[in-house]
Structure formats: structure tokens, C-alpha cells
């Protein structure tokens, strides 16, 4: 490093060292929102070999796009913005990343210390802006002459580790710069960065805890409940083997990614939303429940857990507490795969004869139920999807209808949703981030959810993305809640909109089609997937 550089070159060289360190630590994607103060970092990213850069103007959309990409890859993605309110637009995605365990590296450019607190334009206190929503916040100093590039690459490796383990989530780096922001002469070549080699322990369960749990389960009727959980190779096969050994059912939500695939699905219960609340007594009361992953989405499963007063065990690899029903008796912070294997090795005796059969019979009796438009929509969509297709599902009604009506198949499919904070903001952008990572996506979203992130369509150009906007005349989820009885219901909760999705699609360069539920919709989705590129299909549901 030369002993003296002009300020613009110093800013760029400093940024090169930081970004190079992030890439050396395993980061492969950056999402940049244009700005002035962030110029040195943006230039370093755009010139960094091995870093795939997306440029998205809207900072909120950019953060949700990065969230989707990081969710799909399980690797940290960088988000870059300039100073001021640009950074504040990240907050909804930061909250989601925190609660959902998605790794993000948030880099905000900032004004130097001498411009803080004196009314300088586009300047506010940025370190600590996200409070407890981030795993760590690094308030950097302005670039200094003669800086140690190894120290910056080490900090980058530390930020990647903090975002990745033991509980994945967002990390904030706030970087101030003095002007000028652009080098006065030709920029130096990007130096090769090194990184700290990190290793992480395997999260094996405590043998004593496994022995205690196996004893409590032995010979008693029980259930395995699987919600959204981080992907782990071999878990689907292991939990299926455990259910077979225990002769117990698996109540698997779509976001568990157990419903679709070539693993053994013979113990799955997938239609519980249609009968569990009314027929729980008929199938019998479990003596134990073994949970994997997040708390369930739908009220039928939430009610089942809330009414349980015996053994309730949760397996979670992350250091968090997920027990809204206040019913846990055992909490195992360990790899779900390792817990399944340990319980199989402990070999507790199976449930009484007839326990599993009663659950399977109740579930099979509801396979053909198609009492609503959504109940007909979901099977048509599942039939249209090719094997291996990533599917993003919106919150509110869409994810609940998917839970009720998606069924199960040996066709591999992978489901994603923003269920950390369960917001309807940023859903289009998150789906497109998944498309960037996986090469394509099909998104099932409600009409209000689409409108909430309509600007996210700007990132759809050139991507293989099929977005289904289900137009059911507003916030259909509220029709299932007590608010539906209020005289102000339509104005204050249902809020039907008059957005023209055809015009929105044209404005952002997407192909558009409209269809009611039926075979024509299946054909439309299949044709859109086959042709590639971005498509918006408006699905009209009759009331």
C-alpha cells in the first residue's frame, strides 16, 4: 500500500479490501441501490471478480431481493445503499431476515464524523439503526492512509461468520467516506484477498436428553410436527424412518419441504386443516409431540399444540425460543438430522396398534375436498409445476390455502415464504431474488400482496419468473376473522383495489395473461414456464 493516496483512490482501495474480503469469505451476490456517497463501495463491487451484482433502484425492493437470494442459497448476500433514508428502507427486510434466520450483509455508506449532528444534508445517525434486529453492527472509521488491508479482510470474514453462525441473520456495516469519492487517476487493480478459514461444530444432541426423550416416547401414541426449517441433506429420509419406527404420523407443512419428493411419504398427514379441528377427538390424543422447525402457520396445528399438556419436544439447530403456546417440555438445540438418527439408535418402542392407521384414514377421507376456489386453484398449480421448481408463496391467505390443498407427490418441489415476520411487503422482490439464485421461480401471491410490492416488478426483466396474482377482491384473509362482522369491514379491512395488473405488467415489461381457475390456467402456467422470461398471470377467483 502506498504511503499516500488521493482521497478518492484511498476510498476505492479501502473498499476493494473490504469487498474482496467478503468475497474471499464466500459471498457471491451483491444488490446495489445507486447513490453518491456509496460510490467507492459500488465501484469496488462492480469491479470485483466472482461477485454477481444486481442494481435495483428501490432500496426496500433491493433488500427483499437479497433476502430471497440468500434464503435460496443459504449464503450471505450483500445489500448496499447510500446514506440517509435509503438505509431506513431496509428495515422490513432486516426484520424478516432476523426472525427467519437469513444471512445478509448490510453495507450503508455514510457522511464522515465532521458532518454528523450539524444538519448536513442526507445525514443521520446510522450505526445502531437496526437495534436488536441485527447479529452485529460494525461502525467503521473513514479510510486511513497506510491502512492494513488484512485487517479489513479479517473484519469481512468476521461479518460473514456472524451472519452465518450460530444463528443466521443480518449484519450491518456502516462505512463513512470523505469526498472526493472517485479516484483522481486510474484505479489500482483489485488485489487478491485472503480469508480466515472457519470451521463450525456439528450440532449433536446431548445423549442424556435423547435417552430421556426416548423413554418418554416409548410405546405411547405420538405425533411429529414439521414446520419451516433450514434445509439439511438427508433429513427427509431420516424423519420418515423415525416415523416408521415409531408408527406415528408426520403432520408436515408445505414449508417443511417434506410433502414433495421421492423420499418415503407414507406417514405424512397433509389435509389436517380440513378436519383436525373437528375430528381431533376421533383420532385420539397424543401423549407426545416432537416438533421440528418453526411454529405452525395454520390455526388447526396451532390449536393442537396449544391444547397439548404432555411431552412436547422441539428440535431447533438455532439458539432461539419458539414456543408461542408455552407448552414445551424439552428443547434440543441440535441438528434435526442428528436427533432423528439418535432417536432411531435409541429405538423406543412403537405406538399402540391402530394409532397411525386412524390418522391416515382421517386424512385420506379429505383428499378430494374442493369446497372453494382456492381449493381448486392449488391442485391446478401443483400439476403445472415441473419437477425441481422453486415456489414462493405469499403470506395471509395464499400460504394457508397451500397448506390446506397442496397435497403430496413424488415430484420434487421446493417451497419458500417470508414467514419470519409474515409480512406482505417485498414478496415479489423476494421471489425474484430466488429466481436469480435458482434460475427460475413461480410465485403465488394475493392481489394486495402484489400491489404492496408492485415496484418489485422492475427487477423481473430477463428473469424466468411466473407471478400468479390471485385476485379475490382484496384482503380475503380477513373474511375468515372476526373483523368480517364489522359494518366497516369492506372499507377498513377487505380494501378491494382497482389496480390494473395488465397495465402494471406492460409498464415493467412482463408478459400478461388472465384466467379463471381450471385447465386453462394449468396450460397458461406451463406455457409461461416453458417460454421463459417474466410473466404475470392474474387469477380471478369467484366469490
UniProtKB/TrEMBL annotation:
<dbReference type="GO" id="GO:0030976">
    <property type="term" value="F:thiamine pyrophosphate binding"/>
</dbReference>
<keyword id="KW-0786">Thiamine pyrophosphate</keyword>
<keyword id="KW-0479">Metal-binding</keyword>
<keyword id="KW-0464">Manganese</keyword>
<comment type="pathway">
    <text>Quinol/quinone metabolism; 1,4-dihydroxy-2-naphthoate biosynthesis; 1,4-dihydroxy-2-naphthoate from chorismate: step 2/7.</text>
</comment>
<dbReference type="Pfam" id="PF02776">
    <property type="entry name" value="TPP_enzyme_N"/>
</dbReference>
<dbReference type="InterPro" id="IPR011766">
    <property type="entry name" value="TPP_enzyme_TPP-bd"/>
</dbReference>
<dbReference type="GO" id="GO:0070204">
    <property type="term" value="F:2-succinyl-5-enolpyruvyl-6-hydroxy-3-cyclohexene-1-carboxylic-acid synthase activity"/>
</dbReference>
<dbReference type="InterPro" id="IPR029061">
    <property type="entry name" value="THDP-binding"/>
</dbReference>
<comment type="similarity">
    <text>Belongs to the TPP enzyme family. MenD subfamily.</text>
</comment>
<keyword id="KW-0474">Menaquinone biosynthesis</keyword>
<comment type="function">
    <text>Catalyzes the thiamine diphosphate-dependent decarboxylation of 2-oxoglutarate and the subsequent addition of the resulting succinic semialdehyde-thiamine pyrophosphate anion to isochorismate to yield 2-succinyl-5-enolpyruvyl-6-hydroxy-3-cyclohexene-1-carboxylate (SEPHCHC).</text>
</comment>
<protein>
    <recommendedName>
        <fullName>2-succinyl-5-enolpyruvyl-6-hydroxy-3-cyclohexene-1-carboxylate synthase</fullName>
        <ecNumber>2.2.1.9</ecNumber>
    </recommendedName>
</protein>
<dbReference type="GO" id="GO:0000287">
    <property type="term" value="F:magnesium ion binding"/>
</dbReference>
<feature type="domain" description="Thiamine pyrophosphate enzyme TPP-binding">
    <location>
        <begin position="409"/>
        <end position="539"/>
    </location>
</feature>
<keyword id="KW-0460">Magnesium</keyword>
<dbReference type="Pfam" id="PF02775">
    <property type="entry name" value="TPP_enzyme_C"/>
</dbReference>
<comment type="subunit">
    <text>Homodimer.</text>
</comment>
<dbReference type="GO" id="GO:0009234">
    <property type="term" value="P:menaquinone biosynthetic process"/>
</dbReference>
<comment type="pathway">
    <text>Quinol/quinone metabolism; menaquinone biosynthesis.</text>
</comment>
<dbReference type="InterPro" id="IPR012001">
    <property type="entry name" value="Thiamin_PyroP_enz_TPP-bd_dom"/>
</dbReference>
<feature type="domain" description="Thiamine pyrophosphate enzyme N-terminal TPP-binding">
    <location>
        <begin position="15"/>
        <end position="125"/>
    </location>
</feature>
<dbReference type="InterPro" id="IPR004433">
    <property type="entry name" value="MenaQ_synth_MenD"/>
</dbReference>
<keyword id="KW-0808">Transferase</keyword>
<dbReference type="InterPro" id="IPR029035">
    <property type="entry name" value="DHS-like_NAD/FAD-binding_dom"/>
</dbReference>
<dbReference type="GO" id="GO:0030145">
    <property type="term" value="F:manganese ion binding"/>
</dbReference>
Amino acid at each position: 500500500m502506498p504511503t499516500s493516496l488521493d482521497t478518492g483512490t484511498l476510498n476505492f482501495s479501502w473498499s476493494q479490501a473490504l469487498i474482496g474480503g467478503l468475497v474471499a469469505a464466500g459471498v457471491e451476490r451483491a444488490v446495489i441501490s445507486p447513490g453518491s456517497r456509496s460510490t467507492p463501495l459500488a465501484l469496488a463491487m462492480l469491479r470485483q471478480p466472482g461477485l454477481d451484482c444486481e442494481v435495483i433502484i428501490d432500496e426496500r425492493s433491493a433488500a427483499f431481493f437479497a433476502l430471497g437470494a440468500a434464503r435460496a442459497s443459504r449464503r450471505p448476500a450483500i445489500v448496499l445503499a447510500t446514506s440517509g433514508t435509503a438505509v431506513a428502507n431496509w428495515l422490513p427486510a432486516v426484520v424478516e431476515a432476523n426472525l427467519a434466520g437469513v444471512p445478509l450483509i448490510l453495507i450503508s455508506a455514510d457522511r464522515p464524523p465532521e458532518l454528523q449532528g450539524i444538519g448536513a444534508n442526507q445525514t443521520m445517525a446510522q450505526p445502531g439503526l437496526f437495534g436488536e434486529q441485527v447479529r452485529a453492527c460494525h461502525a467503521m472509521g473513514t479510510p486511513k492512509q497506510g491502512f492494513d488491508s488484512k485487517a479489513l479482510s479479517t473484519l469481512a470474514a468476521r461479518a460473514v461468520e456472524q451472519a452465518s453462525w450460530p444463528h443466521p441473520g443480518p449484519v450491518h456495516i456502516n462505512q463513512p467516506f470523505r469526498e472526493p469519492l472517485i479516484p483522481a487517476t486510474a484505479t489500482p487493480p483489485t488485489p487478491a484477498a485472503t480469508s480466515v478459514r472457519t470451521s463450525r461444530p456439528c450440532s449433536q444432541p446431548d445423549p442424556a436428553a435423547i435417552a430421556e426423550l426416548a423413554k418418554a416416547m416409548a410405546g405411547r401414541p405420538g405425533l411429529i410436527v414439521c414446520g419451516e426449517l433450514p434445509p439439511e441433506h438427508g433429513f427427509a429420509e431420516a424423519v420418515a424412518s423415525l416415523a416408521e419406527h415409531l408408527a406415528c404420523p408426520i403432520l408436515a407443512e408445505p414449508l417443511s419441504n417434506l410433502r414433495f419428493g421421492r423420499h418415503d411419504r407414507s406417514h405424512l398427514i397433509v389435509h389436517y386443516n380440513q378436519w383436525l379441528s373437528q375430528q381431533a377427538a376421533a383420532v385420539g390424543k397424543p401423549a407426545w409431540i416432537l416438533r421440528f422447525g418453526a411454529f405452525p402457520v395454520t390455526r388447526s396445528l396451532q390449536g393442537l399444540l396449544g391444547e397439548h399438556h404432555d411431552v412436547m419436544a422441539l428440535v431447533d439447530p438455532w439458539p432461539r425460543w419458539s414456543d408461542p403456546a408455552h407448552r414445551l417440555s424439552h428443547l434440543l438445540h441440535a441438528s434435526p438430522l442428528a436427533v432423528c438418527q439418535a432417536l432411531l439408535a435409541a429405538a423406543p418402542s412403537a405406538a399402540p396398534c391402530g394409532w397411525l392407521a386412524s390418522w391416515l384414514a382421517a386424512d385420506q377421507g379429505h383428499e378430494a375436498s374442493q369446497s372453494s376456489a382456492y381449493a381448486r386453484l392449488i391442485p391446478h398449480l401443483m400439476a403445472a409445476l415441473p419437477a425441481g421448481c422453486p415456489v414462493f408463496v405469499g403470506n395471509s391467505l395464499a400460504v394457508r390455502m397451500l397448506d390446506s390443498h397442496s397435497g403430496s407427490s413424488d415430484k420434487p418441489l421446493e417451497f419458500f415464504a417470508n414467514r419470519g415476520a409474515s409480512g406482505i411487503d417485498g414478496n415479489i422482490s423476494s421471489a425474484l431474488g430466488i429466481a436469480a439464485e435458482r434460475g427460475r421461480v413461480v410465485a403465488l401471491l394475493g392481489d394486495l400482496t402484489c400491489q404492496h410490492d408492485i415496484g418489485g416488478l422492475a427487477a423481473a426483466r430477463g428473469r424466468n419468473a411466473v407471478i400468479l396474482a390471485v385476485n379475490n377482491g382484496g384482503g380475503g384473509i380477513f373474511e375468515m376473522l372476526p373483523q368480517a362482522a364489522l359494518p366497516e369491514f369492506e372499507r377498513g379491512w377487505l380494501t378491494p383495489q382497482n389496480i390494473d395488473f395488465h397495465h402494471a405488467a406492460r409498464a415493467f415489461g412482463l408478459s400478461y395473461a388472465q384466467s379463471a381457475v381450471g385447465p386453462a390456467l394449468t396450460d397458461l402456467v406451463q406455457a409461461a414456464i416453458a417460454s421463459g422470461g417474466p410473466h404475470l398471470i392474474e387469477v380471478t377467483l369467484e366469490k
